[in-house]
UniProtKB/TrEMBL annotation:
It is a multi-pass membrane protein. The lineage of its organism: Bacteria, Bacillati, Bacillota, Clostridia, Lachnospirales. InterPro entries: MATE_fam (IPR002528), MATE_MdtK (IPR050222), MdtK-like (IPR048279). It is found in: Cell membrane. PANTHER family: FMN_FAD EXPORTER YEEO-RELATED (PTHR43298:SF2), MULTIDRUG RESISTANCE PROTEIN NORM-RELATED (PTHR43298). Keywords: Antiport, Cell membrane, Ion transport, Membrane, Transmembrane, Transmembrane helix, Transport. This is Probable multidrug resistance protein NorM. One of its GO terms (cellular component) is plasma membrane. GO terms for molecular function: antiporter activity; xenobiotic transmembrane transporter activity. The chain crosses the membrane at residues 12-34, 62-82, 94-115, 135-153, 165-189, 195-217, 238-256, 321-340, 360-380.
């Protein structure tokens, strides 16, 4: 028997958003903690080991980008169809989405074997760093099926409002990672010391464990969505709907990988220390941004369901509350980065050179945290309503179109500090663009800052 999720359009918006977002914020914080702990353990092997994992990040992020992007496409399609009370299309979207995910798993195995060493060798001449980075990357790419399938099920459960389940299972996977990291990296409890490769093995075991737990929960608990074999066939409209959001969303998440690769080439001309700083920052960034992304994950099904049901006032309310919550989190991240950057970098056993460079970078980049809350929320809004193009435009401005050219130009004048300055500039441009796009989308009917009466008149 399937559960009913009409509470999406009947429950008060703020309490609904809190109940959907808080579990995801907590799970994102736990996942961020895992990312930090993973780097802390690796840093104890030396700066070369930390650099090796940093170089592997772009390819590792490619896995996450495709998994989350397609997952968001699946979630958006399910939420909109459920809001329109079309159960069969919602079930079909979930089933086809799982099929597409399995296809992507095969592609990553092939890609991992072919491109890993050639790609990583572009960024280092140190044989030890290259070998460690390859060992880490081969494992996380070729065994990526756990990550992709876990995230696909996560997005399906999120689309029907089952945030507590996704929180518990995400935390379970992260806890398994955290427990296994020191055991496999340093060789505790009779296991061999595997170093950087041990960190990778702990990661994939945690991901596969979370995926298996999703299977158990799905089979044992009534669910508003049914994955059925009869729906596993070519359906052009469903596939287009999933990919129209999923491809832009994947590109958005791939942008940091492209950004890091390009910035690594700029920073390496000054010193490999700055490459390590950038790698550490992106680990810290997840700790700062993942709670905000938890809000986005909580609001997506609320916005998608109510948009499909024609409840535009509830959509606007959800956007307003999401913006306020994200701004509070970003302000907190800014204050921590400005006031205690030394203590933050001390977690990574930073030597004096890494500490000095890292503190400067964090203080400059953090100037863009608060304004970025608008870009993050508006990008998620467009994903929720099935408009991947506008979401992609905002993300391109945040992490590509503005940041990369400015990095090249400003680094000529201020060195590495010029690279760090390009981050807040990109966030500002993206947020302004996001406001303009939503104000003009469907005559501004969804914009939280325009008068509701005016928007309703424009619509009619």
């Amino acid at each position: 028997m399937q559960e009913n999720n009409t509470f999406m359009k009947t429950r008060p918006v703020f309490s609904l958003l809190v109940s959907m977002s808080v579990p995801m914020m907590l799970s994102m914080l736990i996942q961020s903690l895992y990312n930090i702990v993973d780097s802390i353990y690796v840093s104890q092997l030396g700066t070369d080991a930390l650099t090796a994992v940093s170089l592997a990040y772009p390819l590792q992020n490619a896995i996450l980008s495709v998994a989350v992007g397609i997952g968001v496409g699946i979630s958006s399609a399910i939420s909109i169809h459920l809001g329109a009370e079309n159960q069969e299309k919602a079930d079909r979207a979930a089933t086809i989405g799982i099929g597409l995910t399995v296809f992507h798993c095969v592609l990553f195995i092939i890609g991992g074997l072919v491109i890993t060493r050639p790609f990583l060798s572009l960024f280092t001449d140190n044989p030890a760093v290259l070998d460690d980075s390859c060992a880490y990357t081969y494992i996380v790419l070729c065994l990526s099926f756990g990550s992709l399938l876990q995230i696909a099920f996560e997005k399906i459960f999120q689309s029907i409002g089952q945030m507590k389940i996704t929180m518990c299972l995400l935390i379970a996977g992260c806890v398994i990672n955290i427990i296994l990291d020191p055991i496999l990296i340093f060789g505790l409890l009779g296991f061999p010391a595997l170093g950087v490769a041990g960190a990778a093995i702990a990661t994939v075991i945690g991901q596969i464990s979370a995926f298996l737990l999703y299977i158990v929960v799905y089979l044992r608990k009534p669910c508003a969505i049914q994955i059925r074999r009869k729906y596993l066939r070519f359906d052009r409209s469903i596939i287009r709907q999933i990919y129209s959001v999923g491809i832009p969303s994947s590109i958005m998440m791939l942008l940091p990988s492209v950004l890091i690769s390009i910035l690594n080439s700029i920073l390496a001309a000054f010193s490999e220390v700055y490459v390590a700083v950038l790698g550490v920052y992106f680990k810290l960034q997840t700790f700062i941004y993942m709670p905000a992304n938890g809000i986005v994950q909580g609001m997506r099904p609320v916005i998608g369901y109510n948009y499909g049901a024609g409840e535009t006032r509830r959509v606007r309310s959800a956007i307003r509350y999401s913006l306020a919550c994200a701004a509070v989190l970003m302000l907190l991240g800014t204050l921590l980065s400005l006031l205690i950057p030394e203590q933050i970098f001390a977690l990574f056993d930073a030597d004096s050179e890494l500490m000095k460079a890292g503190v400067t970078a964090l203080r400059i980049i953090s100037l863009g945290f608060l304004v970025s809350s608008v870009g993050v929320i508006y990008s998620g809004t467009f994903e929720a309503i099935g408009n991947g193009r506008n979401s992609l435009i905002i993300s391109l401005l945040r992490q590509f179109v503005i940041t990369i050219p400015l990095s090249f130009l400003l680094s000529k004048v201020w060195g590495p500090s010029g690279v760090w300055l390009s981050f807040p500039a990109g966030e500002l441009c993206a947020s302004i663009t996001g406001i303009l796009l939503l104000n003009h989308y469907e005559n501004g009917i969804l914009s939280p800052f325009l008068r509701s009466a005016k928007k309703e008149r424009q619509r009619t």
